[in-house]
């Protein structure tokens, strides 16, 4: 935690305007105790970027968070509204949590469920609450 990482993406750069070129921004990885204010499970989720504009935004879901040449997170969600990008920390799936699954798929294995962890929100697959 406290490490500066880089997030890349093609998402919004201003209200309702997506980037025309790949963007990158430095984002500080925040400590798990602070991240736990926003994320349900910090074993699965890490948080990064707490300055306005220093994180991912709408359209960046799935974007990599890279630290020291290693993908450590995959952009997942953020608290607040889309126009608050970077104001609150973005939440990233920890690659370390799903690495066995990734390696299994890369090596021709199953593409079934990643984990038995609880869902990160209360929405069903159909999108209703």
Automatic annotation (TrEMBL):
The keyword Signal applies. Residues 1-107 form the Peptidase S1 domain. This is Peptidase S1 domain-containing protein. The lineage of its organism: Eukaryota, Sar, Stramenopiles, Oomycota, Peronosporomycetes. One of its GO terms (biological process) is proteolysis. Keywords: Disulfide bond, Glycoprotein, Secreted, Signal, Virulence. One of its GO terms (cellular component) is extracellular region. It comes from the Eukaryota. GO terms for molecular function: serine-type endopeptidase activity. Its main location: secreted. It is found in: Secreted.
